[in-house]
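request received
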Amino acid sequence: MQDKSGNRHAMNKRLRNALKGLTAPDAERRRRAMEPFVRATFGSFIRCLYRYLGNEVECEDVLEDVYADIWENPQRLRDVTSENELLRTVYLYYMRKRLRQVYRRINRNLNLSQKGMMNLVAPELSALEMVSQMECHQVLRLMLSKLKARERRAIELWMEGMSNRSIANELKTTVGAVKMLEYRTILKLKKMLSEYYDKD
Amino acid sequence: MVEKNREIQELLVDYAGALRDGCIPTFLKSLTRDEAEMITTCREFQDSVEIVRVLNSVGFADNAVAPNVGLFISRVDAEISSRLKKARASSRGSYTTEAGPAHKTGKNAEKSI
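response:
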């Protein structure tokens, strides 16, 4: 979406109004504004969380806390002007804190390092991670078309939900070779995407 | 049984599988200390993880969007009311604790007189 000033991903009127209500000093008014705000943002927020957790139930639990945190302390959203900025701000100031808690809970009985491993669950934001879902689809389709047939097939089968053993059967190779193929292809995709965004 | 001392490519593929299947805790539990060290220090792993996340979101994130947002909104509302209650209770509690010591001091003062 684009507004008159050319701002990409500008907010629609409903979301703008909900945000205005959310940043009001009165707690009851903020509470009333929560419903339209959730309706307008639920899809994009849960997709964002799904990237890191990969589990719908966990995503909903975390998101419930995120919305309540926003209601309690909405100051960070006061100057937000576009949907992209909103998602970025919410991730940095609300979601990331909750994702860290998820990691701490998982790690309570494990002895993994706190800092390094936490980055796996609640990472810093890279340019790639803030690309919208629709743009992601388009760019990924483009990148996949540039891969060799075998590499593309391995990734496509993985994205269909197949296990490595099934992919190995399909490609008539070993599980070890499939893992190596996937790893190399992922690195190749990373390089291609970095070049694509650098060129942009 | 989980294989020990996995190579970095095996770790990445296992992480990708765990993220896809929604079982990151199982993946973390499966890590040995050396493997965890390798993950945190390997630049290639960190780079690849970004792509794995993108693949995961493109392939599966749409499944996560619950059909009944209304039900989710009522959960959020319940969480907000519980926080409101807690805030009210704690403000009442702090009022009584503030009053408490003053009352005691008064008593002590009375005794000393």
